[in-house]
């Protein structure tokens, strides 16, 4: 097998100039997201550079406590990011979102690493951290879409919700249409992505394994299982986030508790 072709710093910088294309488009359409985009790019570069440094040490130590702490930190970051991007209050949503993320990653990782790959050491950093990261990263994206849909619709359609609540005398049945809409909106992009894998796109993990010298057959088998793990983790996380949130945001009469939405600046 040939060694992986390295990318020099100069070529990495030159590659960054591709960002000129979307920025010109933002200027043309007068979109006020240039600053936000550039900050996100800079943060990504800094964060990934730091990851490259300390993952070397984490992989070398390969300690279950350190690895678990790292994944818990990822869950916390995902929790706060979801709350911020959905415009909800930290007070009401940190605990349900954190617990749902932790539960989903525990179940999927245990099954995937322990029973499917059958690792002797489930907390092996080279499997545990990247796979957990892929599951949590995808779950974050779909959680934001689904949770936003759920609470935005409930907020805008409070009269309809109360009408259903009064007529059915059941919070569960009154919320069901909103839960269904949230889950569909959150997972539809992922379902669409899975339906065209191999036809339109080659996913990142599979591409990375092939570039790393793995057989395409082995890479495909891993990718199939990873996509199943991502879908299970994303759907479970979203559903549990909604169900657990409902226990924190409604009073005994089925009304929103005060202050569940973040104050607009």
Which features does this protein show?
265 residues; mainly alpha; 2 domains; 10 helices; 0% strand; globular
Please trace the helix and strand order, writing H or E for each element.
HHHHHHHHHH
Low-confidence stretches: none
Strand content: under 5%
- Counting helices, strands and paired strands, the structural category is mainly alpha
Terminal-residue CA separation: 56 Å
Number of domains: 2
What average pLDDT do the residues reach? 90
Q: Treating each run of at least 4 consecutive H or I residues as one helix, how many helices?
A: 10
Helicity level: over 70%
Radius of gyration: 21 Å
In this structure, how is the largest beta sheet organized? none
Bulk shape: globular
Please give the number of β-strands: 0
């Amino acid at each position: 097998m040939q060694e992986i072709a390295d990318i020099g710093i100069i070529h990495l910088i030159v590659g960054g100039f591709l960002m000129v294309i979307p920025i010109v488009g933002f200027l043309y359409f007068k979109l006020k997201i240039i600053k936000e985009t550039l900050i996100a790019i800079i943060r990504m570069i800094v964060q990934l550079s730091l990851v490259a440094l300390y993952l070397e040490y984490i992989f070398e130590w390969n300690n279950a406590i350190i690895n678990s702490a790292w994944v818990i930190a990822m869950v916390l970051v995902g929790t706060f990011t979801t709350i911020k991007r959905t415009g909800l209050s930290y007070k009401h949503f940190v605990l349900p979102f954190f617990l749902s993320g932790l539960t989903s990653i525990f179940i999927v990782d245990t099954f995937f690493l322990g029973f499917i790959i059958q690792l002797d050491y489930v907390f092996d950093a080279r499997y545990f951290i990247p796979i957990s990261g892929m599951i949590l990263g995808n779950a974050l994206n779909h959680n934001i879409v689904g949770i936003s849909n759920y609470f935005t619709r409930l907020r805008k359609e409070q009269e309809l919700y109360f009408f259903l609540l009064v007529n059915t005398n059941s919070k569960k049945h009154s919320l069901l249409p909103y839960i269904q809409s949230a889950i569909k909106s959150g997972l539809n992009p992922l379902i669409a992505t899975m339906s065209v894998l191999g036809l339109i796109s080659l996913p990142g993990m599979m591409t990375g394994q092939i570039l790393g010298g793995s057989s395409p057959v082995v890479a495909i088998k891993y990718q199939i299982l990873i996509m199943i793990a991502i879908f299970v983790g994303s759907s479970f996380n979203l559903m549990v986030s909604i169900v657990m949130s409902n226990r924190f945001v409604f009073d005994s009469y089925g009304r929103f508790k005060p202050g569940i939405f973040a104050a607009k600046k």
